[in-house]
From TrEMBL:
Coiled-coil ranges (or none): none
Keyword presence, Cell membrane: yes
Single GO molecular function: antiporter activity
Membrane topology: Multi-pass membrane protein
InterPro entries: MATE_euk (IPR045069), MATE_fam (IPR002528), MdtK-like (IPR048279)
Entry's family note: Belongs to the multi antimicrobial extrusion (MATE) (TC 2.A.66.1) family.
Protein name: Uncharacterized protein
PANTHER family listed in its UniProt record: MULTIDRUG RESISTANCE PROTEIN
Keywords: Cell membrane, Membrane, Transmembrane, Transmembrane helix, Transport
Protein's GO biological process: xenobiotic detoxification by transmembrane export across the plasma membrane
Entry's localization field: Cell membrane
Length: 493
């Protein structure tokens, strides 16, 4: 077998559950590692900034990260979701060159949209002051955000590359570069913060160096070893990278909105908690950081399931896709059960790991049972989001996100906290209410879908997109013609 094909997900006509579990864990594990390593850089930064001894640095960095998440990261990662759908389906259909075109189009779009994002970050201090944020915190947030501009572009491009490689089962390239960058990150921090005495700015410079390593090493390695990827999938940006931008945006924009609604929603919850007092705000920030770290596990598996199901549907293997869908639910339930057990058994120890204040620790401990309810639905919605993306149902998912977070969770949390007097517990209790609706609707959409008919529609769409590629004939050696595909579809029907 060609090395370029052996590195991808298998394409057998049928896959039993034992093989499917091995495949999911084989490709899910590096995805999870990659997500955790990305969060580890943030943890190191928080620890260093906290040791600098200036509360305004901590507040400014937090406000800067909030600004970057809202204006840049959530949008960039959301737009990258189009690759999960389109490239995975194209690889399943053996349209390797077209899959590479989708990746290149995403690069072009992310770079174009980053221009106004960079301008907003550069003037973030003025924007934050206009929004009535504390002047000192806004000042340091502006400094931190403006220095991070090049790093954020590289971070978004790295996340896009991760998704593209995941769609063909090549994951360790990015993970290995992350391992190296995480080892070097404390060295960069020491170099810029303590040796050059750049203080808060030094943390930003160090993070830029880390993001540069994460981005440049995989690019150079792949360019040098193209045979690691599927044949013809890795190519330079050309005319075909600009010819189908609207095709990509049809999937990318709903994916962006879906991600942004969720990310922005958690920032709203922190703002609501801040209205209750500093202890409530502190507890919510710590709990969300714990949740975000553990959330990297289902999120990594979500990327894996998205690629597996997308490959299967693109290859007209709807029975195999059904097996992966069933496994995704089993994985979600199992992972949530493990996390709930950890929360229940070690809630006191976890609380005192992050604070020595008894009032704050007791408040966090009282929230953990509610957080357990939330995680049950959260892990299901996270992993099934990958299935929804593989199906190309981002438009439906956007409506579900709007309903669950902004129409159920936040109003319920507000009423419980501020009208009926349940405080922080009330805010957090709104989360399981909304996420249960979210997970239930996703499961209904997935299991009510006719996978065979969906697979036919995906094949028609991919073939239609392929005909619009100028170099289609040159790179179509594995593919059936449009006419043959239509004939096969009609005969199958």
């Amino acid at each position: 077998m060609d090395r370029s094909e052996s590195g991808s997900f298998s394409v057998e006509s049928s896959v039993d559950y034992k093989k499917a579990v091995k495949e999911v864990t084989k490709y899910g594990f590096p995805s999870v590692c990659g997500m955790i390593l990305r969060r580890l850089v943030d943890v190191i930064n928080y620890l260093i900034i906290g040791q600098l001894g200036n509360p305004d640095f901590t507040a400014g960095a937090g406000l800067g990260i909030l600004t970057m998440n809202i204006t840049t990261f959530s949008i960039g990662v959301g737009l990258s979701g189009g690759v999960e759908t389109l490239s995975s389906q194209a690889f399943g259909r053996k349209k390797n060159y077209l899959a590479g075109c989708y990746y290149n189009r995403a690069q072009v779009i992310l770079t174009a949209i980053f221009i106004p994002q960079a301008i907003a970050l550069y003037y973030s201090e003025d924007i934050l002051i206009f929004l009535k944020q504390p002047p000192a915190s806004s000042h340091y947030a502006g400094i931190y955000s403006s220095i991070m501009i090049p790093g954020l572009w590289m971070l978004c491009q790295t996340e896009l590359l991760r998704r593209f490689l995941t769609t063909q089962g090549v994951l360790y390239i990015v993970v290995n570069s992350q391992i190296l960058s995480c080892i070097l990150h404390p060295l960069w921090v020491y170099f810029f913060v303590y040796y050059f005495d750049y203080s808060l700015e030094g943390v930003a410079y160090a993070t830029n160096m880390t993001y540069l390593i994460n981005f440049i090493i995989p690019i150079l390695y792949i360019t040098k070893n193209k045979d690691l990827l599927k044949k013809d999938s890795w190519h330079c940006i050309n005319k075909d990278s600009f010819s189908g931008l609207l095709e990509y945006l049809e999937i990318g924009v709903p994916s962006m909105i879906m991600t942004a609604l969720e990310v922005w929603g958690f920032e709203v919850i922190c703002l609501m908690a801040g209205l209750l007092g500093s202890a409530q705000l502190g507890a919510s920030v710590v709990l969300f950081n714990i949740d975000a770290f553990l959330f990297m596990i289902p999120f990594g598996f979500s990327l894996s399931f998205s690629s597996l199901v997308g490959n299967s549907l693109g290859a007209r293997k709807h029975e195999r896709a059904s097996i992966y869908i069933n496994l995704s639910v089993i994985f979600a339930i199992g992972l949530s059960a493990i996390v709930c057990f950890i929360y229940w058994e070690f809630k006191t120890q976890i609380a005192y790991m992050f604070t020595s204040d008894k009032e704050l620790a007791d408040l966090m401990i009282s929230i953990f049972p509610i957080l357990m309810l939330y995680e049950c639905g959260n892990y299901i919605q996270c992993i099934t989001t990958g299935i929804i993306k593989a199906m190309g149902y981002q438009k439906y998912a956007t409506i579900v996100c709007l309903l669950s977070f902004w129409i159920v969770s936040f109003p319920v949390g507000y009423l419980l906290a501020f009208v009926w007097g349940y405080g922080l517990q009330g805010i957090f209790f709104g989360l399981p209410c909304g996420i249960t609706v979210h997970a239930a609707i996703f499961l209904l959409i997935i299991y009510l879908t006719d996978l065979e008919e969906l697979s036919k529609n995906i094949v028609r769409k991919i073939e239609s997109h392929a005909r619009g590629v100028k170099n289609y004939n040159e790179f179509n050696e594995f593919s059936a013609s449009w006419e043959d595909s239509e004939k096969a579809l009609s005969e199958k029907s």
